[in-house]
Design goal:
single chain; alpha/beta; two-stranded antiparallel ribbon
């Protein structure tokens, strides 16, 4: 059995509880240690404690911009491979996300395989 330290760590930042839980289930089944955050502050705290290799960040969080979260995460962990998800895709935010360091920008709903 793989212990949590050896598994790939994935941070999911989304303000939708059901979506976070679904992501946790899907990625846990794929062997990831999944960390869940509903806001910017929680995401930074989990990042400092667990240093995830991967992140999925929602573009729109309650009262916060997901791109600010992305920026702060990548500043703290330059090797982080992050995907930005949104239900409100636009060329402008896609370009900004990639410039900030996201490896992909996907619109919801999307397949787990595309996120992975």
């Amino acid at each position: 059995m793989t212990n949590a330290r050896a598994r790939k760590k994935l941070l999911v930042v989304d303000d939708d509880d059901a979506f976070r839980e679904a992501m946790e289930l899907e990625f846990s089944e794929r062997g990831y240690h999944v960390l869940l955050a509903s806001d910017h502050r929680a995401a930074l705290g989990l990042t400092a404690m667990h240093r995830p290799q991967y992140a999925v960040v929602d573009l729109r969080l309650r009262g916060e911009r997901g791109l600010e979260v992305l920026k702060d995460l990548i500043e703290r962990l330059p090797g982080l491979r992050a995907v930005v998800l949104t239900g409100y895709g636009s060329i402008a935010t896609a370009i900004e996300a990639i410039k900030l360091g996201a490896v992909h920008y996907l619109t919801k709903p999307c397949e787990i395989e595309a996120i992975e």
